[in-house]
Design brief:
By secondary structure, the protein is mainly α. The protein contains nine helices and two strands. It has one domain: Rhomboid-like fold, CATH 1.20.1540. Strands 1-2 form a two-stranded antiparallel sheet. Helix 1 runs antiparallel to helix 3 and helix 5 runs antiparallel to helix 6. The longest helix has about 30 residues.
Length: about 220
């Protein structure tokens, strides 16, 4: 099946991506409200603790938890923007990406973070979505996504300063693990159908007589194929 989408399908996917991210942020903020009401007991009890086998399942809980209102506020904007950009090509792929990033980021913390430190926060996901958005277009060979990646990389390159060893006050290991997970996800979830579609010639144009030859020609004329 060809992965090329009509404009209507792309708008529908973008709409789903918007509501998915809106719902995700709503859940994160509701958890924060409950966490704050319990004096951040949830962060203490379900934060990811390095080397503690019993806390391994918390790789999935930790991204929903934060240590303060300032902590969640600093994550919410980038989480929504990068999450939406990661999801608008397909929500199912995005959910797989989210699981991968959470696991890679969490395991990086679990293996390498200092002992007796409870790590929480959605910033691992933020860095994962960022890494995915930056390189996705290269793996998918999609011009628009490549341009989006270039713009995001140029605009938010400063984020990488908190994913290097020794960054004080943050879990740079979680950030770095999330970034690695996002780049890996761009490769694992790449659009293979763009390479295998029998209706496309190597140069990207549709073969003559193919049902979508007209659409492919229009997209090719616009430089989108």
């Amino acid at each position: 099946m060809n992965a090329e989408k009509t404009a209507e399908q792309m708008v529908a996917e973008a709409r789903k991506a918007f509501f998915v991210m809106f719902a995700f942020l709503a859940v994160v903020w509701l958890v924060q409200l409950a966490n704050w009401g319990e004096d951040y007991a949830l962060s203490r009890h379900f934060g990811l603790v390095s080397g503690d086998v019993g806390r391994l399942p918390d790789v999935l809980a930790a991204p929903f938890l934060h240590w303060s209102w300032a902590h969640i506020e600093s994550n919410s904007g980038p989480l929504f923007v990068f999450g939406f950009l990661a999801a608008y090509r397909g929500v199912a792929r995005f959910l797989g990406l989210t699981l991968l990033v959470a696991v890679v980021s969490g395991l990086t913390v679990w293996f390498l973070e200092g002992a007796n430190v409870a790590t929480v926060g959605a910033s691992g996901l933020v860095f994962g979505y960022f890494g995915y958005v930056v390189v996705r277009g290269l793996f998918d060979r999609h011009l628009i996504d490549t341009l989006v990646g270039i713009v995001m990389a140029a605009s938010f390159a400063y984020l990488l300063t908190v994913a290097v060893p020794g960054t004080p006050g943050v879990s740079w290991l979680g950030h770095l693990g999330g970034l690695v997970g996002g780049v890996a996800g761009a490769w694992l979830f790449r659009d293979r159908s763009r390479r295998s579609d029998p209706g496309r010639r190597p140069g990207g144009a549709a073969a003559e007589g193919h049902p979508r030859a007209g659409l492919h020609k229009e997209l090719g004329d616009l430089g989108l194929l």
